[in-house]
Amino acid sequence: MTAHLSVPALDNKKNRASSLSEKIVNGYLKKKMGFTGLIITDGLDMKGVTKNNKKGKVALKAFVAGNDILLIPDDIPASIKTIKEAIEKGKVDEERLEESCKKMLRYKYLSGAWKRTVVDTDKLLGDLNRPSYQHTVDELFGEAITVVKNEGNIIPLAYPDTLHPAVLIIGTEEETSFEQPLKQFMPFSVFRLPHDASTSDKQKVLNMLEDYNLVIIAVVNTNILASKRYHIPESDVQFIEHVARKKTVILDVFASPYALDFFSGTTNFKAIVISYQDKPYMQKVSAEAILGIHKAKGALPVGAGGFAAGTGILIEKSRLSYATPEELGIDTLYLTKIDSVALSGIAEKAYPGCQILAAKDGYIFYQKSFGYHTYDKKQKVENTDVYDLASLTKILATTPALMRMADEGKIDINGRLSDYLLYLRGSNKEDIGFREVLAHQAGLQSWIPYYEETIWNTDWDTTVYRSSISELFPVRVAGHMYIQENYHYAIYNEIINSPLQEKEYTYSDLGFYLFKDMIEQINNIELDDYVYQTFYNPLGLRHLRYQPRRYFPLQNIIPTENDQVFRHQLLHGDVHDQGAAMLGGISGHAGLFGNAYDVAVMMEMFLNGGVYGGRHFIKPETLNDFTSYQFPEKDNRRGLGFDKPLHEYEEHRTNCRSASPESFGHSGFTGTYTWADPETGLIYVFLSNRVYPDMHNSKIMDLDIRTSIHQLFYDAIGEEK
User: Can you give 500-563 as a three-state secondary structure string?
Assistant: First the structure.
């Protein structure tokens, strides 16, 4: 579409709009740029062209200039008459008319318009708002967003754990679409001021910003009128510059880039983003670009604010984001089947509810919650609810901790556990190595029911437990159940003195108890604090923690078993695993709670070779080692900490048919499962509380629900085998 602009650099004739310029339309657009598509004028009834031309003449000049479609002429009969007369009198060649007619006929044919198909108006709204169209809008906005300054690569925000950020909205006191992605990612305080706010209101905001170390300023509620300063008063500019002199500021302007000329300089801004249009969707995408959830690759179309035309800094997408299945070419028929399988599991009472998430190549295309917390159907499962992840703890806490420590040279993954846990020396476990323990090849027995020695018939041993917290019984096991302060020594003593079996594949939790103690001794910090500070907080994860009662409302924690053997209560916010519970809910093999999204972020970080959000967490070669088969010659399918596909696929086993040999993941006793596949870029998370109300409920395994859904995702992306 040709706009009614004055562009002297291309055509310097006075009062000639670009839409009526043969030099611009025919000479520049068609000949120099080689554009062969349909050319449409802006409305020809606008004053930009009518004020200097008689009725009918505007359309003729637009036609002569090279436009094919003349939009809204000021006088249609007069326009037709004027063009017809010009052709008949030889002032305009018939070839010019034929050129546009042929183009129109060609595009009518290509579009199917020649068929004169009647438009179904009942479906018009849906047809005009297809997901593919929204994807195009998304791409266009992302292509447009322009980062002209990015000092220290502050964009995207790679170190959220070091930030105490605030958002300052200039231009409205209403909530904006700009704030929403930021607040979903991490705790942002939001302050708002209208345009030309009072001095007292500005001072209040300045006082409140005192404790923040990053301020993201968004200038909104603008317009397109240069004569009106794009609705950005001088007082706003002065206030923004004042904030930038005192704070680290990222400035995002939702207006013409010429608005940068209002500022006396750009030195005090850490980063500057031009987002051009003050539209809700543009605000959302621009905020996502600052977070690294969306790519920004725009370039300034004009010079402004001391930045030359063409200035633009590429900001790559570096975090999980969302896309529709259609955008990724995914067959939605299979996604409907996944819905059915998930719902049938609830109907069969395999679990009362679940969360399911799938992502491909960094884009989440499926995220749903089904069912309820319990079978009484009082509370629906939400995406923000957290599940007891059971043995997913091994790959989401203990294993990444060991990988990080190996990268830092704190441990030798080819060494022995007794090199770091001195109490193993002289025991039958003195020579067991990291690799064989992590791959369940060390000969450790599967598990030890520690709790059995602490109950008499059905009663607790009161030398071990008390019903209220005290200095001697400070460790919570469950509601009104606290264990003796030093009882963890008894647990470790049982592990040390347990027998060793033949060194063949036997899945065992015991080594992960030892890894917890090792991680804490070497780093001088509790395991839960170590993984939070090293991974979860830097990754921006807000729903992945041990001891969930400390961090989440109870109504957001999914209950597990109604334990009638050991704890004699419904477990709600306390870890299901008995051994982990006796350690206060924090262990290397179990204890972690989380939602599907946060699990997916961890898996995406693994899939990206240890990088996420522009930040390096684990070396790629370390991840490659840990996610590779370790003892395949001994019929062991395990990696280091990670589970892997069977060497030869078997029905009703641990993985689905299409999982590649490069893929990795883990399952959890409570009904959880996650898997990542480098070959296809597919990440899958399934969380449920299948152990409610009874841990002996095996329907989720009997029906192959987790692996069946996994296979359907492979089918949906066209990777079925």
Answer: ECCCCCCCCCHHHHHHHHHHHHHHCCCHHHHHHHHHHCCCCCCCEECCHHHCCCHHHECCCCEE
